Amino acid sequence: MTELTTADAGTITIASSRFGPVEVHAAAVIEFPDGLIGLGGLRYTLIGTDAKSPFVWLQSVDDGGLALPVTNPAHFFPDFRLELSEGEANRLEIDESTAIDIYVTVRAAPGLADFAANLRAPLVIAAGIGHQVINQAPGSELRARLFTDAGELARSPAA
Fold first, then answer.
1. For residue 61, which phi and psi values (nearest 5 degrees)?
2. pLDDT (tens place) for every residue of the chain, 159 residues total
């Protein structure tokens, strides 16, 4: 368990093993009521370390040792589509008019050519509530390469 302190009424401090003490606004905490596949904890926040990077970190609020890289799939996959079953969309209480953010987990590796994103189980975040869902869209790969062997984007971004 991580030490979590309240800096003031609207800010919490996470003792992150990756970033050191990190202050975040309480409103930036994302609740994942069903958790994340293979991970503990229900509360996370997004931490960006470089404004120019397409990657951010999904940092557990409750476990300072748990942070994983994520990205908006549109940065790398211009044709990315999220398709949910009707039952899943109803469970999440979202439709086409709901404002959502979508992230995919990233498998980082020593070489860029081995970086991969999980397009099959993206994270859907709406109004501070997050869910990891199964993407029904055809071609939603479990390990979609982000870069070529030459370190270039594996797919061309939208112009």
1. -75, -30
2. 444 555 555 899 999 999 999 999 999 999 999 999 999 899 999 999 898 999 999 999 999 999 999 999 999 999 999 999 888 888 888 888 889 999 999 999 998 889 999 999 999 999 999 999 999 999 999 999 998 776 777 775 544
Residue 97's φ and ψ, nearest 5 degrees, are -90, -10
Residue pair 7/23 in contact (Cβ under 8 Å)? The answer is: yes
Q: Are residues 81 and 142 in the same domain?
A: yes
Mark whether 45 and 109 lie in a shared domain. Answer: no
Helix (H) or strand (E) holding 130: strand 129-132
Domain that holds residue 108: 72-159
pTM value is: 0.87
